[in-house]
Amino acid sequence: xxxxxxxxxxxxxxxxxxxxxxxxxxxxxxxxxxxxxxxxxxxxxxxxxxxxxxxxxxxxxxxxxxxxxxxxxxxxxxxxxxxxxxxxxxxxxxxxxxxxxxxxxxxxxxxxxxxxxxxxxxxxxxxxxxxxxxxxxxxxxxxxxxxxxxxxxxxxxxxxxxxxxxxxxxxxxxxxxxxxxxxxxxxxxxxxxxxxxxxxxxxxxxxxxxxxxxxxxxxxxxxxxxxxxxxxxxxxxxxxxxxxxxxxxxxxxxxxxxxxxxxxxxxxxxxxxxxxxxxxxxxxxxxxxxxxxxxxxxxxxxxxxxxxxxxxxxxxxxxxxxxxxxxxxxxxxxxxxxxxxxxxxxxxxxxxxxxxxxxxxxxxxxxxxxxxxxxxxxxxxxxxxxxxxxxxxxxxxxxxxxxxxxxxxxxxxxxxxxxxxxxxxxxxxxxxxxxxxxxxxxxxxxxxxxxxxxxxxxxxxxxxxxx
Length: 467
Known about the structure:
With about 475 residues, the protein is an alpha/beta fold.
């Protein structure tokens, strides 16, 4: 028992050491952290079983399970270490469009109501003449997914090419019948790294979190929604859902198409490079857009770089809307530096998150941000899931990426960055609506938090790398 307790002490010491030194600054630790937490949890259970259980069968099962998980953990650590070395050499994962340039001929519609978002998506899908490309992190077994399926089946029966990519972990609960019904009419539906493949590759901890719909290579949608009724406010456990989506028509859709086709190559081993997927689009408006995609890279991916660039470019004001907040030392320094230079920084977060521990993590950054005169608003009208950054009304980012650990280092994301003052002002108008239904968190209010809230905040520090 002494040996088991000594090993437990070593594990806890390692976790404390990295958390004190901000784990978000250590690429390897970010990648292995969830494995370590689960291993620690299982190891504590094993110690308790050894101490208090005399049943031979239960003890044997416990030891066997522990051994299997230990082997799995060691294998995963070695694969992650190898992946990180290749990442550093920049020859394992590459952003599908990391060197994208601005496109200028575009039209954009911003949407902030879930019903309007899905109505617009389905309306454009019904108009499809050639192909429909869809990529979502989650498809729920909900009414909206069934409605979408019916429309896609109809289009496939008309001879339209329909391709869907969904994440292997995000859709563990998706019914097989949903996939079979679509495939039966010719819809090509591929999973992005299922559980087995993720374990073999050592990539279980990073997922395809992208959300996009492309119709005929002419119209594209991207934002924060997945395919589920909660995004329409129909889930009572979540309540009102506040999210954002942009509908893009024009040259920028070609960039989105390249990202999708790159992902399609990954899941199907098929290279679709036909010109029909990149038609010329006549658009009169001159609205510059840059589509940014990111992949697994714990050293900092393209989304992380773009966020830092937008934040540090602000000269007058900066608005950030995100449900989950996890800041590296570099990102925190960037925010506090511009605030100290007089930039008015406002961060809007949900008071209640859809994952109970996410708000604990968010709160770990409040004190330092408030001390730097950064305004923290806690939104109280339902759950705020939008991912938006606006700098000086002139540069705005909207897409699938939160300002958290997963988006900046681990997951596959897509964002649209718009360079347009009119669009920036429209977005700020919406953000102000969020602010009007939020409460400003002052230092006085922060210092009044209860003992339980303080304990949750301490736990939140430990959970930063998994949010």
